[in-house]
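Allow me, if you will, to draw on your knowledge of protein folds for a short while. I have a record of one protein: its chain in single-letter code and its fold written as discrete structure tokens. I remain grateful for any guidance, and I place the record below:
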Amino acid sequence: MADSPYIFDVQTADFEEMVVAKSVRVPILVDFWAAWCGPCQSLAPVLEQVATAYAGRLLIAKVDADAEPELAARYGVRSLPTLMLFADGSAKAQTMGAQPETAIRTFVQPFVSTPADELAREAGDAVSRGNLAKGRRLLEEAVAREPERPGPRFALAELLLAAGDTNGAHQVLEPLNAVDKESDVARMLRDRIAYAEDLEGAPTTEALTRKLGDDPDDLESRYLLAARHVVEGTLPEALAQFYDIMQRDRSFRDDAGRNGLVSVFNMLEPDSELAARYRKRMAALLH
């Protein structure tokens, strides 16, 4: 075994404790290897470099497949070396064969927190305690430290939107790469930015509600009220207003009712009962 504090041997008897349970706190890359396996020997120094680079944010557990055949069989190991990534108490991904350091780092990266992620978590704690200024400072530091990391950018854009800085939120999202720009989170934030921009100079929620009381067919006021609900996070009310628009006039703002419903669906959980109910109602209008 390599002389590294981040690499350790593991046997069948202690695998649950040392890998499965511990992976709840830190991701663990399990290396199934054997002494006779040439590619395994080639991979060993590469894994040591990876472990050193992550400096405790990723641990590597070595399993001698010849000495622990039961463990290898339990996880369906068919060839050596096999690398299996454990996180949150279970196996998440695997790859086989000797590979360069860049390939290994690409394989584990989605499961390993970075310094920017740690700053983002600190920022979330600060915001939850009401310290918005500290949260913003930490997120800006996270973005500056790792500009390519999408998570801190998303969190900072969210915070700026809540503060009414739509231009700042847009600028934070702009440098995202093509893949991250098309992610569900990025699309949701862009939709919220667009609604916030539509609300510049618009009446208050109370004023819009009064206008609709006087004239229920005032679709511009209804749209602005829906946009206010989106920005304020009252999504059930937003859905109700967008559905009403779709029901009254599909041509208004180029089918703004239907488009609004779809955008709010993307802001809700995938298994949301509310979204499912409005999807059925929208389908009935379409057909």
Summary: The chain has three domains: 7-111, 115-196, 205-286. The two ends are 65 Å apart (CA to CA). The beta strands are 7-9, 28-33, 59-64, 82-87, 90-96. The CA atoms of residues 160 and 168 lie 6 Å apart.
